[in-house]
Amino acid sequence: MSIQQIAFFLVLAVVSYVAFKRYSRLRRNILLGKKEVEFEKDSSKRWSNVLLVAFGQKKMFKNFIPAILHFFIYAAFVITQIELIEIIVDGLFGTHRFFAPSLGGFYTFIISFIEILSALALVATVIFLWRRNMLKIPRFKKPEMKGWPTKDANLILIGELLLLTGICCMNGADMVLQDMNAAHFHQTGNFAITGWLGPALFGGMSESALIAVERFGWWLHILTVFGFIIYLTYSKHLHILLAFPNVFYARIKSRGEMTNMPEIMNEVKSMMGLIPEAEVSADMTEELPSFGAKDVFDLEWRTVLNAYTCTECGRCTAECPANLTGKKLSPRKILMDIRDRAEEIGDNIDSGKVEMVDGVYDDGKSLFDYITKEEIYACTACNACVEACPVMIDPLAPILELRRSDILNESAGPKEWLPMFNSIEQVGAVWQMPDARDKWTEQLEKKD
Amino acid sequence: MEETIKIKRMSEHLEAGTAPEILFWVGCAGSYDARAQKVAVSISKILTALDIEFAILGDEESCTGDPARRAGNEFLFQMQALQNIEVLNGYSIKKILTICPHCFNTLKNEYPALGGNYDVVHHSQYLQELIDQGKLKVEGGEFKGKKLTYHDSCYLGRVNKVYEAPRKVLQALDADLVELKRCRTKGLCCGAGGAQMYKEDEPGDKRINTERVEEILESGAKVVAANCPFCLTMLGDGIKAEEKQEEIMVYDISELIVQSNNW
User: Fold this and answer.
1) Which residue of A has its CA nearest to B3?
2) CB pairs below 8 Å between A and B: how many?
3) Is B230 left (phi over 0), alpha (psi -120 to 50) or beta?
4) Do A329 and B202 count as a contact with CB atoms less than 8 A apart?
5) Following DSSP, what letter does each residue of A383-448 receive, concatenated?
6) Do the Cβ atoms of A346 and A25 come closer than 8 Å?
7) Stretch among A79-83, A101-105, A345-349 having the lowest mean pLDDT
8) Lowest mean pLDDT among A161-165, A180-184, A281-285, B241-245
9) Residues of chain B with CATH 3.40.50.1860
10) What CATH topology corresponds to B8-128?
11) How far is CA A220 from CA A206, A231, A237, B64, in A?
C-alpha cells in the first residue's frame, strides 16, 4: 500500500465521520420543527415538481442570463460526480484512471464532456464573482447580507475556482505525461480542453515535475470536494442538496389556503353547538394551548427545511412590495433567521448548555428575538415571494404563523386592527357602519 | 338604465320555494364602501340585463373572515367562516359569484376544509364566460382606441392564477390595452392585502400604492382596470396623491362594461 493510499484512506475516513456527524445534526435540526404536517398525497405532482423545478430549474429561467450561467455550474456539478467515483476508486486502490482502459473512447468522451462543462462553469463563476462584488445589485446588498452571508457566497465561488484549477492541473499534466509515454499513464486519447491546454501550460516540464503537478491537481480536486461536503453544512449553499427534497415536500395545495387550525375550528364548532363539546380535544382545558409559531418547534418541519434550503439569492426580497418601498421586511431574512435560530438551538442542545426538560426546550429566547414585529406586520400576503423562489420555499407561511402567535397568544399586534376585529365580531363587517348590509341595493331601486 | 331593479334575497327564494341560478356574494366592500358599491351596482345591472336569476344574502351575509385570518386572528376567522357556511349550506348554495378576490379566495380555497363546498367564480371569470357564450355583448365605442391598462390583483392573479379571463373581458372593449411593467405572475401588490388595508404602513420610504401608481403613470394609460375593491381604493388614493385624478380613471372591469353598453 502506497503512502498516498494510506493518506487517502485516512482522509476519507475522517471526512466520512465528520460528514456523518454534521448531516445527522442537520437532519435533527430540521426535525426540530413540528412533525404533524398535513400532506396532500399527490406524489405524481410532487415528482413532476422535482423533475421540472429542481432538476429542470424551470423557475430559474424567468431570468435567462443568470439562469443559463447557473445552469453551467449546476451541470458541471452533476456530471463531475461521475469523475468523483473514479477518483475515490483510484485513491483507495492506488490505480490510475481506473475506468479508462475498459471504457476506451467513451471514457475520452465523458472526460471531455466534463471539461467543457467545467470551462463553462469557470466562465459563470468568474461572472458571478464579478456580479456579486462589482455590480451593485440591490438584492446582494441588503442589510441581512452584511458580513458572513456575503463572505460565504464568495468563499463558495472561490472553492469552485479551486476545484476547476485542480481538474485542469490533473488532466493537463496527464495529457503531457501520456505524450511522453510515462509509465502508469495509459493512453486515453486527447481530452477536449486539456488536450491542447495541458501541453500549452505544462509542455517541456520534466516527468517528475509533471507527476507532481498531476498529483497536486488530483489532491486539490478531491480535497476541495471533501472540504465542500463539510463546509456546506456551515453555509448557505446546502441548496445543491436540499433543493430536491425541498421541492418534493413543498405544498401543492392552493396558495390561497392558509393552514387550517383544527383545534380552534373544533373549539368554535363546539361553541356554536355544531359538535358536542366532548369531541373537542381534552387538553384544551388542561394547559394553556399555544397557537401559531413562536419558535422553531412550532413551525412545520418543512418550513425549517425551507430555511436550510435557502441559498440567500434574494429573488423573494427583490419582489417583495414591502421591501421595495423601504420597509424592514425581507422574506429572505425571515428564512435566514429561522435557520440561525435552529442552529442556535442545535448548538445549545449539543453543548449541553440548555437541557431539554420533558422534551421541552427553553433558553428564554424565541424567533421574536430574531424577527421583529415590524417585519411581520409589513407583509401584504401578496405571495410575490412564494412565486419568486426558484426552489419552492414558502416565506409567507412562517410570517403568518408568527402573526398567529402574536395575536392569539399575546393578544398583541397593530392596535389599528382592534376596531376591525371588533367590527367583524359585532356586526360581521370590516367596518362598523350604521346601515343595513343591503342598503346599497336602494341605489338600483331608485329611478335614474 | 331606466327601470327599477329589485334584488331578491335568498330568504325570499326560500319562501317562494325557488332557487336562483347564482348567489351574488357582495362582501363588506361591496356592501359598505361607497366606491365598491358602484361595482356591486354594475354587476347587478349586468346580471339583470342578461336575465340571469341571482340573489343576495342581504343581512344574512357576513365578512368571510379573510382579513382576520391573514392578520393572525384564527378564532375570529373560524367564527365568521363557520357561521357563513351554516347560512350557505342552509340555503343549499351551489354557485357563488364574488366581486372581491379576497372573498373569492376564502370561499373557494378555505371554506372546503371547514365544510363549505361551492362552485365559486370571480366576476371577471363569470363575465368572460358570458362573453364567450355570446350572452354578453360589449358595444365598444366608449373605450375604443383609448389607452387602457390592467392591474392584476394578488388574490386573483398570483394566488389563484387567473390572468387571462379579465384580459379577455377587456379585449372586448376594443381599447388599446397596454401592460404594466410588473404584470401577471410579477404583478405588484396595491398594498392593501394581508389586512394592511386596516392599519397604518410600517415605517418605510414610500407607500406601496405610490410605487404602483408611478408604474401606471409610466405606462401612459388613461384608464386603469382593476378587479378588486381594495385595489380600487389603493390605486384611486395613489392617483389622487399624484394629483392625476382628472387624467387617469380607475374602474372595475364590470363598470367598464356597463359604461360601454350605456346601461
Assistant:
1) A447
2) 226
3) alpha
4) yes
5) -HHHHH-TT---SHHHHHHHHHIIIIIH--S-TTHHHHHHHHHHHSSSS--SS-TTGGGHHHHS--
6) yes
7) A79-83
8) A281-285
9) 8-128
10) Rossmann fold (3.40.50)
11) 21, 15, 20, 62
* CA B47 remoteness from chain centre: 15
Q: Does domain B138-260 have CATH number 2.30.29?
A: no
Architecture of the structural domain at A283-427 = Orthogonal Bundle (1.10)
Residues B91-145 have pLDDT tens digits of 999 999 999 999 999 999 999 999 999 999 999 999 999 999 999 999 877 898 8
pLDDT of residue A80: 87
Of B110, B76, B67, B78, residue with least CA distance to A259: B110
Predicted pLDDT of residue A81: 83
- Report the distance separating Cα B211 and Cα B189, nearest Å: 9
**Beta carbons of A424 and A430 less than 8 angstroms apart:** yes
CA distance B8 to chain A (A): 10
Q: What angle do CA A383, B190, A332 make, to 5 degrees?
A: 35
Instruction: Please judge whether B208 and A380 are an interchain contact, meaning their C-beta atoms are less than 8 angstroms apart.
Output: yes
Q: What is the distance between the alpha carbons of residues A140 and A149, in angstroms, rounded to a whole number?
A: 10
What pTM was estimated for this model as a whole? 0.96
Rg (CA), chain A: 28
Give, in order, the Cα–Cα distances in Å from B256 to each of A316, B134, B230: 34, 18, 17
Range A215-230 average pLDDT? 97
Strand partners, B8: B55
For chain B, give the percent of residues with pLDDT over 90.
95
Residues of chain B contacting residue A261, judged by C-beta atoms under 8 Å apart: 74, 78
Q: What is the pLDDT of residues A31-84, one digit of tens each?
A: 999 998 878 888 999 999 999 999 999 999 999 999 999 999 999 988 888 889
Residue B20 has pLDDT above 80, yes or no: yes
Quick one: closest CA in B to A385, which residue?
B186
The separation between CA A146 and the C-alpha centre of its own chain, rounded to angstroms, equals 19
Closest CA to B118 of B94, B98, B135: B94
Q: Given this model, what pLDDT does residue B30 score?
A: 98
